[in-house]
Design a protein that fits this description.
Layout (H helix, E strand, L loop, with lengths): L31 E7 L4 E8 L2 H6 L5 E8 L2 E8 L7 H22 L6 H27 L10 E8 L4 E8 L3 E6 L2 E4 L28 E5 L5 E5 L1 H4 L5 H12 L8 H8 L11 E8 L6
Length: 294
């Protein structure tokens, strides 16, 4: 493949340094994070996040985060990419992801049983989005900083398998990518944001939470998805143009579903070397436990 060369970190040029953040800085986060979860409803979720070459070279923290969750037949994934210009980005991304998933689970477990499932998903995502924003606002007030200091993107997904096909809800604020492999097609599930300046984007903190509620969308797929992914721009931008290169990403991810420790395999995969790619990399994926061929 001419656009993305998937090799190991051993191919990184020697002029890229690996430095630790200032030991006096608080709110420390590990340079890598992984999680795997198999649900009772026959689905698996796997996520991994690793510090980018640029952050290692500068001695700064990994600013991406993610959260996974499940309850009953529902599966949830949130990926958040803290803004590089925001001094507490690592705090904001973690807080947004974890508070959203926790809130969504509580709503799903308390939702009226006679409420339309699509409406349940929409309301759940809106509650999660609101809680993510309010958690950031409360944290900013407690620390005596401005809200933008905790700036982060937000990509959220709720999936519910049906007797035939699936019901899926998504919301995206900022860049990154939500995509799915369904049948022989790969589709993007939301429109990434870009800001006015090259390389800029919007953050959850850019507007009040009410301004983001109409971003939530819900749809039904007649076929069961083979895989659904959420990723930060550190991965997504390496596969532009999507029509040409996104199928390759799914080709790389599919064998991981057969691994005994797919989260470790995913973390290793995210260590690929590509010229001009130096940001944090975070990806979460959902797939049937009995993986279907891609």
């Amino acid at each position: 493949m001419s656009n993305v060369a998937m090799t190991t970190d051993s191919g990184v040029a020697t002029n890229w340094l690996t430095l630790e953040p200032d030991p006096e800085l608080g709110d420390r986060v590990p340079h890598t994070l992984t999680q795997a979860m198999t649900t009772a409803s026959g689905w698996s979720m796997v996520a991994a996040s690793r510090r980018g070459k640029g952050h290692a070279h500068q001695g700064s923290f990994r600013e991406d985060s993610f959260a996974l969750g499940q309850t009953g037949p529902w599966q949830l994934m949130v990926v958040a990419d803290g803004g590089g210009s925001c001094p507490l980005a690592r705090v904001g991304s973690r807080l947004a992801a974890e508070s959203a998933v926790s809130t969504i689970i509580k709503y799903l477990e308390a939702a009226p049983p006679d409420l339309d499932l699509a409406k349940v998903i929409k309301i759940s995502l809106q509650h999660g989005l609101r809680q993510a924003w309010e958690s950031l606002a409360a944290e900013a007030e407690q620390r005596g900083v401005i809200l933008r200091d905790l700036g982060t993107t937000f990509l959220g997904m709720i999936h519910r398998p049906l007797d035939e096909g699936s019901l899926l809800g998504v919301v995206q604020v900022g860049d990154g990518l939500l995509a799915a492999k369904i049948g022989d097609k790969i589709i993007t599930l939301a429109e990434p944001d870009t800001g006015e300046a090259v390389g800029s984007t919007y953050f959850l903190t850019s507007l009040h939470w009410k301004e983001w509620l109409d971003r939530v969308s819900v749809g039904t797929f007649a076929q069961t998805p083979q895989m659904i992914v959420a990723m930060c721009d550190g991965v997504a931008d390496d596969f532009i143009p999507y029509d040409n290169y996104l199928p390759k990403l799914f080709d790389y991810l599919h064998p991981l579903t057969q691994q005994p420790q797919p989260e470790t395999a995913l973390l290793d995969l995210l260590g690929y070397n590509k010229r001009g790619s130096f940001d944090d990399r975070t990806l979460a994926m959902l797939y049937p436990t009995q993986a279907q061929p891609l």
